[in-house]
Design goal:
Jelly Rolls, globular, 142 residues
């Protein structure tokens, strides 16, 4: 079975730092995909985020290795406690369980998204408005 979610990419350090901060809501079946230049044990918090999130931590083999929930406005840092994290998908809290996305699930088309971004060139521009740029669809294999 495959599940699709519309995503906004966070590929630059500035985009990854801001993430979903200062937004009123996250529409259903939308999310933000954080792509890191190198695998590592990347940590997140929910400071200045007004809604609860579920985070899926994917390793350098595109496999889901941890799912963590964060409450709105939480200053508590979470990570996968895994040094091989390359991608993190933030979605509304409960997205993974609601869609039966479990540990071991994989990104089906993440390489296509990365290639498209490399061709486009990575921009440092960030829009702080309450708008979304969901121009990619990620398919998760479960």
């Amino acid at each position: 079975m495959e599940i699709s979610i519309d995503i906004e990419l966070a590929t630059t350090e500035a985009e990854r730092t801001i993430g979903l901060m200062h937004r009123r809501q996250l529409p259903e079946n939308k999310g933000m995909l954080f792509i890191f230049p190198q695998a590592g044990n990347h940590a997140f918090w929910n400071k200045n985020v007004n809604f609860p999130l579920s985070l899926g931590f994917f390793d350098d083999q595109n496999k889901l290795v941890a799912i963590k929930d964060m409450e709105a406005q939480s200053p508590i840092s979470v990570s996968a406690n895994n040094n091989r994290i390359k991608f993190v998908l933030e979605a509304n809290q409960g997205f993974f369980s609601k869609n039966n996305i479990n540990l071991g699930s994989t990104f089906v088309d993440i390489k296509r998204i990365i290639q498209k971004e490399e061709k486009r060139g990575l921009s440092e521009k960030i829009d702080f408005k309450d708008s979304y740029n969901f121009n990619h669809v990620v398919v998760l294999g479960v």
